[in-house]
């Protein structure tokens, strides 16, 4: 009885503490986002005109500039062609999402489901390949592209992203490992070929991992900056990431508006499919 | 007597005559029958060979001499033609291009270009790259050559056992069934080879050349330089000093970020899973928001936030304090702590999501049992939760460590334009990967860059292998399969 008496206020205290910490943590995560969103609706562009975190006045001017690209503070029109950057990003991300997912899913399925001589070797090879700094290959590709004048082609990043995607097959393999083999054995007795088994049995069962893969394959090029920075050096070929990096302090609200515009679709996507994201992440992690 | 002699000669004459007649007859019949006999001879020979070829393993040897020849005797004509075309194509390639490329890979070009005289010299980089591609082609050819022999051998065994070998159409069908894995893996393997393996080998080779900012191919020739770049890194000098300073900070950074992010992420997961907390879905939205925002936006935003004209300095000024040059040239440790903070902001949500998923798999009976036994909350966490989560996430910790070790973004955005004194084209917050970028992309010192890439690989692979092999997840890998 004594124990219970003393623990009741203590329990309230911990509950309050939990709420306080949670609110603080959420504030830390939310605050920069709020700041960026507010700044995107700022009436003035430069960060030096701000009252601390808050813009001096609000307007939709920056978004107008972003989409129409007609006027600028200096009257320059082609300085920051945001819509072009946006379309470039969209093309690269969509193409990578399609090609990369296709390669990645099929590779992971085969490694998970088939026993063949080179299987172990391939897995070890992928492990070793993953340990090289991704940067190393990029530098080499950059040197090659400069030597052969292949820079400024959207296909460069698309091919790099999607062909190197299968190296990260482990998450998807973990998922396929969890599909019971008895399903396949039954199918084989019925004389179903492996290809048919793949797209009639495996694919319908793999919706979560498919969503996860498409999403990761899409968001990676969507938010990557190193590769496009190296391979796309013409202003008209920039992706949004590269373009936004070139904005100076005085174009702060343009940076924010551009960021909001590119972040909103991806954030919405994440919230809609966050269930799949968590499933995909844990599936890969637990199985290794 | 005379009679005897006459008889003798008559007999002799007869014998000789007969002999000649016989000879004539034989000669005639020989020539008359020659075509038939020859034909019969060759038919016989053919039948013997055929007998051997059909009922033995000899066609396998033929396949080893000319690709596809053995398949002809297996009556797999389409396959034979394809193999033969591969061999012809390969020989043509080697004669007209491959030979030059291979020798170019060894010499890296011998003809110096001269723009004044208009001489087009050798492009060392192109030769090196095409040499590598030739090596890949040779490897693929060797694979096909062996597969050709193996295919012939297998088909022979099928035939010798009295069964019918697969038809070409059947072979194609097998590519969707028995050999489905080959079909599927072909494109990813080629893609990874061309866009990942070849570039990496190329960069490794560059590390052993003298390709630095002073040389500009195709005008200048590049040459092999052995271990010179490694000597520059490990010898005495500015580059060597910079390397060890950056390496020290890089290891510290990797350990700090991995530990901080892991425990904050785990803590967040426990916090947002707490039974005392209502409205979990709402609160969990904030880390997911942070997770979903592209990293470059966050990092650029933090750069703006800590910049000299940024909001934090605005408030410092407002309250009468001096502005702090958070990311400036002299603010080594401030910038480093900001880097740690920014990195935690960016990466903890993913670990939180991961840990949430793993915690939901945790068996709650264990806690009840522990509570009955009187174990404290802390002890429960330490003895049950932590081992379980650590066990489940060992691969993640390793990949986190490696990606933190090679975390390019944070300091590229925060202090990308700063060059500290005492460092060779680097800032005092740079990680090896940032230095690598500055050295190779900004300064075109590709050979040193390549050498550093190799060192980064060696360091990360040793660390991760050590951790990985010792981890329980690895030891029990087979139980998962």
Search tags:
heterodimer; A: 288 residues; mainly alpha; B: 481 residues; MetI-like fold; 3 domains; disordered C terminus
Q: Number of helical runs of chain A?
A: 14
Instruction: Indicate the percent of residues in helices of chain B.
Output: over 70%
Main sheet: strands, sense, barrel of chain B? none
What is the beta-strand fraction of chain B?
under 5%
Tally of alpha and pi helices of chain B: 20
Helix content of chain A: over 70%
Task: Using the alpha-carbon principal axes, give the shape of chain A.
Answer: globular
Low-confidence spans of chain A: pLDDT under 50, at least 5 residues? 1-6
**Biggest protein-protein contact in the assembly:** A-B, 94 and 101 residues
Terminus-to-terminus distance of chain B: 112 Å
Query: CATH superfamily assignment of the largest domain in chain B?
Result: MetI-like
Structure explained in plain terms:
Chain A is an all-alpha fold. Chain A has two domains: 2-68, no CATH class; 82-287, MetI-like fold (Orthogonal Bundle). Helices cover 73% and strands 0% of the residues of chain A. Chain A is globular and about 70 Å long. The two termini of chain A are 48 Å apart. Mean pLDDT of chain A is 83; it is low at 1-6. Helix content of chain B is 75%, strand content 0%. Chain B has three domains: 2-55; 69-207, no CATH class; 232-480, Orthogonal Bundle (MetI-like fold). Chain B is mainly alpha-helical and 481 residues long. Chain B is elongated, with a radius of gyration of 39 Å. Chains A and B meet through α1, α3, α4, α5 and α6 of A and α5, α7, α9, α10 and α11 of B.
């Amino acid at each position: 009885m004594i124990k219970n008496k003393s623990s009741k206020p203590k329990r309230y205290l911990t509950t309050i503490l939990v709420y306080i910490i949670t609110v603080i943590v959420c504030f830390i995560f939310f605050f920069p986002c709020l700041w960026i969103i507010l700044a995107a609706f700022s009436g003035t562009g430069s960060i030096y005109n701000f009252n601390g975190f808050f813009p001096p006045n609000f307007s939709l001017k920056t978004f107008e500039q972003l989409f129409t690209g007609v006027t600028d503070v200096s009257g320059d029109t082609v300085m920051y062609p945001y819509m072009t950057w946006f379309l470039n990003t969209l093309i690269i991300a969509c193409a990578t999402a399609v090609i990369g997912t296709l390669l990645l899913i099929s590779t992971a399925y085969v490694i998970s489901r088939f026993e063949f001589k080179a299987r172990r070797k391939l897995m070890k090879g992928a492990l070793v390949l993953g340990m090289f700094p991704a940067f190393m290959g990029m530098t080499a590709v950059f040197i090659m592209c400069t030597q052969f004048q292949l820079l400024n082609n959207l296909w460069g990043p698309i091919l790099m992203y999607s062909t190197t995607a299968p190296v990260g097959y482990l998450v998807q393999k973990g998922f396929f490992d969890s599909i019971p083999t008895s399903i396949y054995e039954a199918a084989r007795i019925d004389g179903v070929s492996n290809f048919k088994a793949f797209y009639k049995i495996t694919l319908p069962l793999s919706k979560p991992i498919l969503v996860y893969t498409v999403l990761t394959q899409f968001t990676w090029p969507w938010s990557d900056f190193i590769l496009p920075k190296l391979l796309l050096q013409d202003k008209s070929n920039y992706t949004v990431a590269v373009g936004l990096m070139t904005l100076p302090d005085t174009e702060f609200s343009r940076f924010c508006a551009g960021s909001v515009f590119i972040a909103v679709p991806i954030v919405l996507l994440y919230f809609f499919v966050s269930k799949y994201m968590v499933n995909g992440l844990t599936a890969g992690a637990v199985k290794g | 007597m005379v009679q005897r002699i006459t008889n003798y000669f008559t007999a002799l004459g007869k014998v000789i005559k007969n002999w000649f007649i016989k000879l004539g007859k034989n000669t005639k019949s020989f020539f008359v029958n020659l075509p038939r006999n020859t034909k019969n001879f060759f038919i016989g020979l053919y039948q013997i060979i055929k007998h051997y070829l059909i009922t033995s393993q000899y066609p396998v040897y033929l396949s080893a001499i000319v690709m596809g020849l053995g398949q002809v005797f297996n009556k797999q004509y389409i396959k034979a033609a394809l193999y033969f075309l591969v061999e012809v194509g390969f020989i043509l390639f080697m004669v007209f291009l491959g030979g030059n490329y291979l020798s170019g890979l060894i010499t890296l070009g011998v003809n110096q270009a001269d723009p004044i005289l208009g001489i087009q010299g050798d492009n060392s980089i192109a030769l090196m790259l095409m040499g590598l591609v030739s090596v890949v082609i040779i490897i693929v050819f060797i694979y096909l050559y062996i597969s050709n022999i193996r295919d012939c051998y297998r088909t022979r065994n099928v035939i010798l056992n009295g069964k019918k070998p697969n038809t070409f159409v059947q072979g194609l069908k097998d590519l969707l069934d028995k050999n489905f894995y080959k079909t599927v893996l072909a494109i990813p393997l080629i893609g990874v080879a061309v866009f990942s393996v070849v570039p990496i080998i190329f960069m490794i080779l560059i590390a052993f050349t003298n390709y630095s900012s002073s040389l500009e191919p195709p005008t200048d020739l590049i040459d092999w330089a052995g271990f010179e770049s490694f000597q520059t890194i490990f010898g005495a000098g500015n580059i060597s000093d910079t390397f060890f300073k950056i390496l020290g900070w890089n290891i510290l950074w990797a350990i700090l970020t991995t530990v901080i992010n892991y425990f904050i992420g785990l803590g967040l997961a426990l916090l947002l899973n707490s039974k005392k907390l209502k409205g979990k879905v709402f609160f969990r939205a904030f880390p997911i928001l942070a997770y979903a925002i592209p990293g470059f936006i966050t990092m650029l935003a933090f750069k703006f936030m800590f910049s000299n004209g940024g909001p934090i300095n605005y408030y410092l000024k407002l309250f009468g304090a001096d502005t702090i040059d958070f990311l400036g040239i002299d603010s080594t440790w401030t910038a480093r702590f900001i880097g740690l903070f920014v990195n935690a902001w960016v990466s903890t949500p993913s670990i939180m999501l991961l840990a949430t998923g793993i915690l939901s798999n945790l068996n709650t009976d264990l806690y009840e049992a522990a509570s009955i036994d009187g174990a404290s909350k802390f002890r429960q966490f330490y003895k049950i939760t932590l081992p379980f989560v650590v066990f489940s996430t060992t691969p993640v910790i390793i990949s986190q460590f490696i990606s933190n070790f090679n975390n390019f973004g944070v300091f590229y955005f925060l202090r990308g334009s700063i060059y500290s004194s005492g460092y060779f084209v680097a800032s005092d917050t740079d990680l090896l990967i940032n230095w690598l970028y500055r050295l190779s992309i900004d300064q075109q010192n590709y050979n040193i860059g390549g050498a550093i890439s190799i060192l980064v690989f060696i360091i990360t692979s040793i660390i991760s292998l050590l951790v990985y092999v010792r981890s329980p997840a690895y030891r029990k890998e087979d139980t998962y399969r």
